[in-house]
Write a structure and sequence with these properties.
five-stranded antiparallel sheet; 22 helices; alpha/beta
């Protein structure tokens, strides 16, 4: 190791000259580890951010040469480790929280004990605690060691001390442990180990169990027997019965699946050797899969495609029923290569059936939350435990592409100051919060004229997850499948105008309800009903009510609460945008968002899930508090319960966006997501026509629409000076509110027309009472909503009397 040379204090300042103290500069990281002198101070017991360490593990570069420590900290987020070494850093020679940088080979843990016991077998554990525990359990008959950072970096370890030794590896009882065991075994053999064996950890032990954990009372475990019976590791592959999985090329064997046709004589030695025949590319059976009820059994597979990429899939055993075309099609789609002919197909089926993997994993039928763990097709987030994988025939695609930083710059940043764009982006983070917060499924429908940038909000939201943009134009079966495939994430639907209005009616209710149809199987048995929890975003030129009205029906109140219409136009003359951030037009900004969303996607949602699952309970409590404050600030006093339900969904979006901002995922100022949710909620409330029940608001809209459409043709001017023109199919009467002063009309509606036409499909009495409360209808007689009016040529009759103010505009209905 080179000696440290102190810098010359009288050296010139350099070409930059003197820099004022106020100017911040980046100091170079000139870290240089040094031998620890005998008079070195004691190492620190605290880390500035993590507090006091709970365990400290010494690492030696030689039997009497301490190289440093690995310190373990117990934090609220879980276990953390930090290296601690002695050396020079930025002018200070002392202990520093620095480790073995770059490609520096890291020493094995318990190296002095390994070198001192040169005549015993070596036991490699995945962590320092396990190695210490193994030394206590097994005594001097084994030399227990571990590699630094466990499963994270076996390739950075100096394995040379195991040269010439017999090594047994005891991996942790989980997927990461199995991977670590294989990687460490290959590295140890490369370093010169005589042999390497890997313990088959019994399935009866808990997931994640290692030698530092107590043995459960229900499990009988003989450590010595397991160590003795550990199978030998073959760096070229693995063999079971008449099948062999070849990992790398060795002699005449190419990587892939081989079957033994018998024995043949070696042409050089005459000895009998196994005659192996290749029939497929490499396909590893990693474990058995089964669901929470120990049903839906299958196999967890790793398929190695021609580009040397590995695809992990969970294949239900049910797919192998019948001709086998179904499962082979799936394997081919992931890159499997199969020899031609019936024999190869049969060998593949026998291999998948007979190969006995050493692990079991728990399979789940859909993505999203399963306990405290969140499952995506290619990754599970959350605390450790039994390996959980998605087992479905056609998992949804969540693409990760481009750069997270570029996504922040080109997709997320332009949403600042743009209420609709910011709202859609914030809403993309709300799906994973539905289940923890106990919120119901539902969605938002952005409605407005064509070519004003509505779909831009969908593209921005899509890039959060890297998911697909769907369409309302679909079948019930397809909608159920795609909704289940988006469970707890994000579901996107574009252009409702292109869809059949009856399908929209059914689909809107189904999506918000969270369940599909009950169906019978081939044999008449009830099939499992598809279910999901989703927050979806939709666009269209028509509102959902308008689209459903094409069927001759009205949207039910439950649909209006589950699918919330938001006006697309932000009211600034820029379509969906409030500001263009320097772009020449809204179309230019929309085009840039679409291109950036295609190029940079999928990173934000994964970062969000990583942070959310780190401390779910505490985060959920904070979100509940935030939502309560938002609702208090934004819900009108005395608002109907339907308005409260809708406000809760806006509050969820505000909370999701603010959480993503606080985590550094959204590059927004604090309060941006909340302001966008407040603006969109206010616009929804104004367009809805007040904070009363939706049935009343919809009834008022229908009455106004009828008067606007038929005011002159269906209402007779009974009080006209020159006499009224004959009115066909009369619905009532009208007159100037003030004789000869202005053009404001009062309308007097006949009871039968009020019930059968103006309030068709709505409660006529409730609608009338609502108009009386708002001052739009006069009914001075007690216990009546009608007045007795003397109509010229008709006589006295009871009529609904509507004031002219009712037609002055929607603003009159706002609170």
């Amino acid at each position: 190791m080179n000696a440290y040379t102190a810098p010359d204090p009288f050296a010139p300042l350099g070409p930059a000259g003197f820099r004022p103290r106020s100017e911040k500069t980046e100091e170079p990281d000139d870290w240089q580890p040094l031998p620890i002198p005998e008079d070195a101070p004691d190492p620190p017991t605290h880390h500035s951010k993590l507090g006091a360490w709970s365990r400290r593990f010494p690492y030696y570069s030689a039997p009497d040469a301490l190289a440093g420590y690995m310190c373990r900290f117990e934090t609220a987020a879980g276990k953390e480790t930090r290296p601690l070494r002695y050396g020079h850093l930025r002018g200070h020679v002392r202990w520093h929280w620095k480790g073995w940088a770059g490609d520096d080979a890291r020493p094995l843990y318990r190296l002095p004990e390994l070198l001192a016991a040169s005549d015993v077998s070596v036991l490699l554990c995945e962590g320092e605690k396990s190695a210490d525990a193994a030394a206590d359990l097994l005594g001097p008959t084994w030399a227990a060691i571990a590699s630094m950072n466990g499963a994270q970096s076996p390739h950075r370890t100096d394995w040379s001390p195991v040269a010439g030794r017999e090594l047994v590896i005891w991996p942790d009882n989980d997927e990461a442990g199995q991977s670590y065991g294989l990687a460490a075994a290959a590295l140890a053999l490369k370093a010169g180990a005589v042999s390497v064996r890997i313990v088959d950890v019994p399935d009866t032990l808990p997931t994640g169990w290692d030698l530092a954990d107590p043995i459960p009372d229900s499990v009988e475990l003989d450590l010595e027997d397991l160590l003795t019976a550990a199978p030998k590791f073959d760096p070229d592959g693995e063999e079971q019965g008449t099948f062999r999985v070849q990992w790398r090329r060795a002699g005449e064997l190419t990587p892939g699946l081989h079957y033994r046709a018998g024995d043949k004589a070696d042409p050089e030695t005459g000895e009998l050797v196994s005659d192996w025949h290749w029939f497929a590319s490499r396909l590893d059976v990693l474990g058995y899969t089964r669901d929470a009820d120990n049903r839906a059994w299958g196999k967890y597979l790793a398929i190695h495609d021609p580009d040397r990429r590995v695809h992990h899939i969970a294949m239900p055993n049910a797919m192998t029923a019948g001709s086998g075309d179904e499962y082979r099609r799936m394997l081919f789609d992931h890159g499997l290569e199969l020899a031609p002919g019936k024999a190869a197909r049969e060998k593949l089926e026998v291999y998948l059936t007979m190969w006995k993997p050493k692990r079991k994993v728990r399979c789940v039928p859909h993505i999203g939350w399963h306990g405290e763990r969140f499952v995506l097709p290619d990754r599970t987030f959350g605390p450790g435990g039994e390996t959980v994988v998605l087992q479905t025939e056609r998992p949804a695609k969540f693409t990760v592409a481009g750069s997270f930083d570029k996504w922040k710059e080109l997709v997320a940043a332009p949403a600042v100051g743009n209420s609709r764009l910011a709202f859609g982006t914030a809403a993309s983070f709300a799906g994973p919060l539905l289940e923890p917060l106990g919120q119901e499924s539902g969605g938002f429908h952005v409605k407005g004229a064509s070519s004003i940038g509505k779909t831009s909000a969908l593209h921005a939201a899509r890039s959060t997850w890297g998911c697909q943009l769907g369409s309302w134009r679909t079948t019930d079966n397809a909608a159920e499948a795609t909704a289940a495939g988006a469970c707890d994430t994000l579901y996107l639907l574009d252009e409702v105008s292109q869809a059949d209005p009856r399908a929209v009616d059914n689909m809107a209710y189904m999506l918000g309800n969270g369940t599909g149809k009950s169906r019978a199987g081939r044999n008449g048995e009830a099939r499992a009903v598809a279910s999901w929890r989703i927050l979806f975003l939709s666009t269209g030129e028509l509102s959902l009510n308008d689209k459903i009205a094409e069927t001759g029906k009205h949207a039910r109140a439950g649909q209006s609460v589950r699918v919330i219409d938001i006006p697309a136009d932000a009211g600034k003359g820029l379509g969906v945008f409030d500001t263009l951030h320097g772009f020449r037009s809204g179309a230019a900004l929309a085009d840039q968002l679409r291109r950036a969303a295609d190029t940079h996607s999928g990173h934000a949602a994964r970062a969000f899930l990583e942070a959310l699952t780190r401390d779910l309970a505490e985060t959920v409590e904070a979100l509940r508090g935030y939502m309560a404050k938002w609702l208090t600030a934004n819900t009108p006093p005395g608002a109907d319960g339907q308005v409260g339900r809708v406000a809760a969904r806006f509050a969820l979006v505000a909370a999701a966006g603010e959480l993503a901002t606080a985590l550094g995922i959204l590059p927004w100022p604090e309060g941006e997501a909340s302001a966008a949710a407040t603006r969109c909620f206010s616009d929804w409330l104004a367009a809805r026509g007040g904070d009363g029940p939706e049935e009343i608001a919809a009834g008022l809209r229908q009455v106004r629409s009828f008067l606007e459409a038929h005011g002159a043709s269906r209402f007779e001017e009974a009080w006209a000076v020159d006499g009224a023109a004959r009115t066909i199919n009369r619905a009532g009467f009208r007159r100037k509110e003030f004789e000869g002063q202005g053009d404001n009309w009062e309308y007097f509606v006949l009871p039968q027309a009020w019930r059968g036409e103006l309030c068709k499909s709505f409660d006529p009495a409730a609608t009338a009472h609502a108009m009386i409360v708002k001052g739009w209808m006069t009914a001075p007689e007690a216990d009546h909503v009608t007045r007795t009016i003397r109509v010229p040529g008709v006589g006295k009759t009871r009529l609904y009397c509507i004031n002219s103010s009712f037609l002055e505009g929607e603003k009159e209905e706002a609170p």
